[in-house]
Amino acid sequence: MKDKIVLIFLVLLKCISVFGTSRPIIGVLAQEFGEYKAGSFITDKGSTYIAASYIKAVEASGARVVPIFVNRSPQYYERILNSLNGVLVPGGAAKIEPGYPFYDAFTTIVRLSEKMNQRGIYFPIMTVCLGFEAMVTLYNGHKDLQTRCNVIRENYPLKFEPKFTESLLFSRIDHQTYINLKYFPTTVNMHYWCTTQRNFTRSHLDKTWKITSTSVNSRGLKFIATIEHRTYPFTAIQFHPERAIFEWDDTLNIVHHSTAVQANRYFYDALVELSKLNSNKFRTEKEERDALIYNYKPEYPDSKPSVFTQIYVFD
């Protein structure tokens, strides 16, 4: 039996070397400062940013990071996606309407990713908080269907949907992570808007997306916590898995105990594992090196409180 397990593992490694990669690179989408610009960041060094916690979360799960910039041409996004193994869309406060830099870049990335998957190129996307809301808005024909819920500085457990282990996101979940997510307030929620199951169904999003978990806020409102596309390897998460591990503002009520750290690490591990099924790569080693986040230094905001502990600032 042990020999069979070893053989299966070796076969999987061989498949990754042929059809995927063991050295994944994840693109992380930048955004304009938006509502955060006043008082929260050092803003004189650029107009867009990525919170360093997202970069660290991806790196801690075993991948490298390339920033994806806004206000670029369609050719730029097509070229960069063809060099990456997956995309992470972070939370934030940018506008999710056509005509705004973050949302326009996001829309282009999703549409190009759909086409890649249609051509048989496995290309995963994971979106967090603002990214969740942008994904729901995009697939609702650019129409907002959010409900005001004011879920700020609150930590909740997850209520898993039936057959959730058959989903892409939770197919790898182990027993301890399941227990930590289901029975303990381990998910960090910082969002004013929520998507309810009623709005989700009334907008017919259930035809293309499936709900995999929900949460209930302190006022009894049930809202969607995670969803995933029925055809493409796209997942959307309303809470913040990176914050329990990498954000330290003590005014934000971020849970940091070992149960939360273990549970939240799962989500970025899942993204990185999915990205290993993609074999995209940069055309040259120099092009790869020039694109990596290592070419930039994170800023440590000099004012408190700050929404993020560190940020990368771009022109």
Helix/strand structural class: alpha/beta
Question: Which residues form runs of ≥5 with pLDDT under 50?
Answer: 5-14
Number of helices: 10
State mean pLDDT (0 to 100 scale).
Answer: 91
Fraction of residues in H or I helices? 25-40%
Give the number of DSSP strands: 13
Taken from the alpha-carbon principal axes, the silhouette is: globular
Strand line-up across the major sheet: 4-1-5-6-12-11-10-8
Give the N-terminus to C-terminus distance in angstroms.
56 Å
Order of helices and strands: HEEEHEHEHEHEEHEHEEEHHHE
Rg from Cα:
19 Å
Proportion of strand residues? 15-25%
Instruction: Tell me the major beta sheet.
Output: 8 strands, mixed
Notes on the protein architecture:
The chain is α/β, with parallel strands linked by helices. The protein has an eight-stranded mixed beta sheet, with helices on both faces. A three-stranded antiparallel beta sheet has the order 2-3-13. It is built from ten helices and 13 strands. The radius of gyration is 19 Å and the shape is globular. The model is unreliable at 5-14 (pLDDT under 50). The termini are far apart. Strand 11 and strand 12 (234-237) form a beta hairpin.
Question: What's the SSE blueprint?
Answer:
Elements: H1 2-19, E1 25-29, E2 31-32, E3 48-51, H2 52-60, E4 64-68, H3 74-81, E5 86-89, H4 101-118, E6 125-128, H5 130-139, E7 147-156, E8 159-160, H6 175-183, E9 187-194, H7 197-202, E10 209-216, E11 222-229, E12 234-237, H8 243-246, H9 258-275, H10 285-291, E13 311-314
Parallel strand pairs: 1-4, 1-5, 5-6, 6-12
Antiparallel strand pairs: 2-3, 3-13, 7-9, 8-10, 10-11, 11-12
Helix pairs in contact: 3-4, 6-9
